[in-house]
Amino acid sequence: MTTVELGPGTRQATPQPVPLSCLLASAGLPSAAEDALITGITADSRRVQPGSLFVCYRGIEHDGHDYAPEAAARGAAAIVCERPVSLLSRTPTVLVQDGRQAWARLLAAWYGFPSRRLLLVGVTGTDGKTTTVTLLHHILSACGLRAGLIATTGAKVAEQELDTGLHTTTPAPDIVQELLARMVAHGAEAAIIEATSEGLAQHRLDGCEFDIAVLTNITHDHLYYHGSFEAYREAKARLFASLATSYRKPGTPKISVLNKDDASFAYLRQFAVDLCLSYGAEGADLTLEHVRCGRGMLSFRLRSPWGSSPMQLPLPGAYNAYNVAAAIAAACGLGVPFPDAVRACESFQGVVGRMEPIQMGQPFNVFIDFAHTPNALEHALRTARSLCEARVIVVFGCAGERDRLKRRPMGALAVQLADYAIFTAEDPRREDLEKILAEMEAGAQAAGGRPGRDYEVVADRAQAIERAISLARPGDIVLLCGKGHERSMCYGTEERPWSEHAAARAALEKLGYRGQP
Prior knowledge:
The protein is built from 16 helices and 25 strands. The protein is of the alpha/beta class and 517 residues long. The chain folds into 3 domains: 18-107, 3-Layer(aba) Sandwich (Udp-n-acetylmuramoylalanyl-d-glutamate--2,6- Diaminopimelate Ligase, Chain: A, domain 1); 111-345, UDP-N-acetylmuramoyl-L-alanine:D-glutamate ligase (3-Layer(aba) Sandwich), CATH 3.40.1190; 356-510, Protein-Tyrosine Phosphatase, Chain A. It has an 11-stranded mixed sheet, sandwiched between helices. A 6-stranded mixed sheet has the order 18-19-23-20-21-22, sandwiched between helices.
């Protein structure tokens, strides 16, 4: 993947400075008492240059208003803030209700509202987002539509793959708008964005004019941030609510794509759209029939408003049938003929770190999966069980400073659905790793699990993977969950380099396997 300079910072998207008054008016924000020429926009005081517009907002750990004097001293042409700030200079200030929202709108205006020149799809949900957006991008590209992508695994602009940062799914608005502008500049006709609940709640996607909103599912996750399941669901719903107020592109309807079998269906169905497409096992617009999976292949029949077709894809897991249906619904909503969408799916090869096999000649299977929620872990374990008649050995952890309530359920699931589990580190951050592991153990023991018989704890993740692979016998599956594609592990505030793939291959090499990675 090519690494490029992408936010946060001052963006130089126009050759000439822009009057502050024009920028504020375009973004729908209050006017300033004095005008100024703006040469860039940033929310990071360290990146302010003469002519920058500095935007303040209250963050999780820092308050941008505290850095307004520094921004002014560095030559900021104006400051947007949520409350009055004390400055030694006469730098113009603009008061807004929400600094995050203002920042996103200003950046959209700064880049000339690039999403108004694209067919824009947003995909949200707890699990399955990355597979769905990647599959949708594959369908559009295979059917001749030039499309861009912003997802957990990175961004795609034309033929270039771009790194959007560590532990990032929905980037900050400066990156989002710059990427959309790049897509337009490279002739893209459509774009797909993976939209997280935090990204939506923090207005990172304000200024993005969506045409289609897709929901995979809503299960237990991110309550550490949202506080309640209802607030979590409301954050996801922002994507669907935005369809009623977003920019209308000529001849382009506003469409929602909903999972009929998810508990959120009735709640999300209430939002006004031109067309709602549902998918599910029964009574949906796109109906899944005769779902079968085995030996890494998924097969089913998909009935839709545009026709019916058998489907076969090289994807493990019956749950992926839902992701396929969601992607096809969105593609057809964009005008792709149903038969073409079906054919495109059959050449899809999956997503890095999503039930991805690692094969180096060993007589057992090793899979890497990003599963880090109870729902995703359950699907991954059930899929692994369907792929083998021998043992399933799972390795996973629970992230620090994230949803604590999922640790015990995930520990319980491991001993209920796997033959053996190894609990280990997964981005402990500033939490005590031993306490995280103890919570997982408590869940395992409450479900009848016993240390040494059903599970063990190996705090070091590389050692845990090595231990699991050393235990594997012919026909077994070793399932490594939680890190997937990620390239770092966070201890304290330090991001340490990490590769699940490299750790798995190193463990296999220690056992003498030297096959092609």
